[in-house]
Automatic annotation (TrEMBL):
Residues 78-318 form the Exocyst complex subunit EXOC6/Sec15 C-terminal domain. It comes from the Eukaryota. One of its GO terms (biological process) is intracellular protein transport. Belongs to the SEC15 family. This is Exocyst complex subunit EXOC6/Sec15 C-terminal domain-containing protein. Keywords: Exocytosis, Transport. One of its GO terms (cellular component) is exocyst.
Length: 324
């Protein structure tokens, strides 16, 4: 940045000559220039939607600030600006990952993950912290209860945390402060971005009862994995495990809310389907006595309910709607 060279020269003149410039003059000149620099950076950074470009801007500001600080200029306002830009950076990351999550959900088949052998099983559990003693005892081939979107979502949450960490580096903050910033960013990803994607997914017309049941199972496993995300952040920030964190991950509420929404949607769709059977049926309600034959419509309804309740048996906990 040309401003760096200018003030380096000014500092050199200050120390190499006598009476030509004064510290008060250079400080006044620096404060005036700094105000204009911050105004320009704040304006242009607010229009940037590419997280990589925002990250490049941050790196340039850090180099500029560190250099000028080495020559005795006050750069606190620049680092305050970096925290403003960091919020902008996180917003661009959230928008980027919203698209990532939507694509994952669109490509999911909402069926349990099949594993043919030990190698495939290890491939899945290496990407997602899944442990189930009963399933581990089963012979191959076998199926894991969650669908393919679960390990993909878990990996992308970790990738988001890595991306968020890139901005926190070189900001001269302690590991505890960086850890807290990462947790706040992860909370926004879980409670706003991922939660919104899940709620939109559940309401999509093509998502049927089978898919909704699988979503309930998926969110149960993602909820259980939140403790591993907590440990992941602690490990990459090198914070002591004994540290009492001021910020916790809110993933539990995100996945519980999604699960409740899916359960409510199942109840709605189930009632709508039953109503459709009743409306289509041509029942003879005034029949004096039974002719010994069940209505074909009624048999279709019973078969539908039988197959639907069979799907519900895959739920990890007793489904409360069945008691309604």
């Amino acid at each position: 940045m040309p401003e760096t060279l200018f003030f380096v020269v000014e500092d050199h003149i200050l120390h190499a000559t006598q009476g030509l410039v004064t510290r008060a003059f250079t400080d006044e000149l620096w404060n005036m220039a700094l105000s204009k620099i911050i105004a320009v950076l704040r304006t242009h950074s607010s229009y940037c939607n590419d997280p990589d470009l925002v990250l490049e801007l941050k790196n340039l500001i850090v180099i500029f600030a560190d250099t000028l600080q080495g020559y005795g200029f006050s750069v606190n306002r620049l680092f305050d600006l970096l925290f403003e830009i960091r919020d902008q950076y996180n917003e661009t990351l959230l928008k980027k990952w919203a698209l990532v999550f939507r694509e994952i959900f669109e490509q999911d088949n909402y069926s349990p993950i099949p594993v043919e052998n030990e190698e495939e099983y290890k491939s899945v559990v290496s990407r997602f912290p899944f442990h189930d003693a009963e399933i581990e005892k089963q012979p191959f081939p076998k199926k894991l209860p969650m669908s393919q979107s679960v390990p993909q979502i878990y990996i992308q949450v970790k990738e988001f945390i890595y991306a968020s960490l890139k901005f926190s580096e070189s900001l001269h903050r302690s590991s505890t402060e960086i850890d807290d910033m990462l947790r706040k960013s992860a909370n926004l990803l879980l409670t706003r971005t991922l939660s919104g994607c899940l709620q939109n997914l559940i309401k999509k017309p093509h998502i049927g009862l089978t898919e909704l049941v699988q979503i309930i199972i998926n969110t149960t496993h993602l909820e259980q994995a939140c403790k591993y995300l907590e440990d992941f952040i602690t490990n990459i920030t090198n914070v002591s495990p004994e540290t009492i964190h001021t910020t916790r991950l809110y993933g539990l509420s995100t996945f519980k809310d999604a699960r409740h929404a899916a359960e409510g949607e199942i109840y709605t769709k189930l009632n709508q389907k039953i109503d459709e059977f009743i409306q289509l049926a041509d029942y003879e309600w005034g029949m004096a006595e039974s002719d010994g034959r069940a209505s074909g419509y009624l048999m279709d309804l019973i078969n539908f309910l039988r197959s639907t309740f069979q799907v519900f048996t895959h739920l990890p906990v007793r489904f409360a709607l069945l008691n309604a």
